[in-house]
Amino acid sequence: MTDTSTQASPFAPIHDPATRGFASDNYAGIHPEVLAAIVAANGGHQVAYGEDVYTARLTEVLAEVFGTAVEVFPVFNGTGANVLALQACTSRWASVLTTSSAHIHVDEAAAPERVGGFKVNVIDTPDGKLTPELIRAYPARVEDEHFAQIGVVSITNSTEVGTVYTPAEIRAIADLVHELGWVLHLDGSRLSNAAAALGVELRELTTDAGVDILSLGGTKGGAMLAEAVVVLSPERVHGATFLRKQSMQLASKMRFVSAQLLALFEGDLWRRNAQHANAMARRLADGVAGVEGLVLPNEVEANAVFPILPRESSERLMESFRFYFWDETTGQVRWMCAWDTTESDVDRFVEAVRAELR
Length: 358
Known about the structure:
Helix content: 25-40%
């Protein structure tokens, strides 16, 4: 039988590969090193459902990355990672406490509640970040049988509004969460961007800071479809093996998911991609700073820019450059940069914004 694993593809793209926008880092393609890892994992047979050598190696690599023995559960997407992680550390009567801007509250179509079966409670925050003071002030109604008892606090780093938690900020939250007998979950869909922005290792924002369970992002950092639930405190997490299957997140050909994460985290590709995306966001913010009619209310900390400009100007710009409104009441939009955003992409967009508002 002919080995087809290395034959050239007969397909040609039906889109313009040179077109890039600023709507989401999910729009970016697969990093060439990740694509090469998928190809290298192809050919021959490997045991299905995670009993392959790539998944075994991934567990070893992530134990090195996070500085402790870990349990690793590769999954298909970020919502699946979050739902699985939160299911594995909540009781049937428990609830999750997070921010009002959190992805699990705003952008997962109630999957945590519907699939996970737990309530999500939220706290309004000005910068997308929880603090011990905000958590203490929340009316948790402990032992009140009419209230879904809080069992987990979930934070996101970098946050949905582009801000970054420092290791000290996470440690302060973790200490309180553990004092209260709860579990700390971290949605790390852009954890690489946070670590790159701070110049720290991934373990400093997770293991060393007291995080118990992590949704580790890969897709936004250059993978095709690869996320993972990483258990850092096994004593606080139960049943993830079975919950992954029940949540329809168990890949039969898991070697191809694990190979993508290996490409990102076995070396420094995760950091290189995140540093580049962050730098492009800074270049974009610097390029439009001071333009009359545009306001930058927040410092750029990771790979997102959240300017405010006239709605009609945004709508005209969207005809050529795709991006989204973040707050339609104020005219605030979100511009995201990715691992493949180029300086010329940024400069061309900056010139278009300046011309529109001139």
